[in-house]
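User: I'm preparing a small set of examples for a lab meeting where we compare how different chains pack in three dimensions. I only have the primary sequence for this one, and I'd like the structure in token form so I can line it up with the others. Please keep the answer compact; I'll paste it straight into my notes.
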Amino acid sequence: MWLRCSEGQSWNENTCSGTPVSYRLEMVRNKSWIIKGFDDWTLPTLSNLDSLVGIGGNITINSRVFPNTYGDCYWSSTESIEYYEEREHWLWGDYIKKQENRYWCLDFGDGRKKYKPYTGSSYVRFVRRFDVAG
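Assistant: Understood. Below is the structure token output for the 134-residue chain.
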């Protein structure tokens, strides 16, 4: 089950009103979210977010189902680790490998997948966790 409004907005009979809040990912991941009496809200995966776009040939989110969604990046829980090498300017020419944790977000304005450092800010749309009995 998806939260219909972006975090920071509220449902107002037939639309989402208010201004969504942009969060740093580390703040969202390190907080328990109790919404509408449930404590099992979580960040969606990139695949979950991607399922909200492209319906009916659109590249953006369905505004009838999710009204007043900002056309910007929304965090996912999907990590993308980017590795790069940087040369140290030492006499013997050592290389140092660096790593930066990045997470994917989906831009509901253009339907593109992007990744950002977890210290960056993006909007949030929560989904409830569920267990599949099997």
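A couple of notes for your slides: The mean pLDDT is 81. The CA atoms of residues 33 and 120 lie 20 Å apart.

User: Perfect, thanks.
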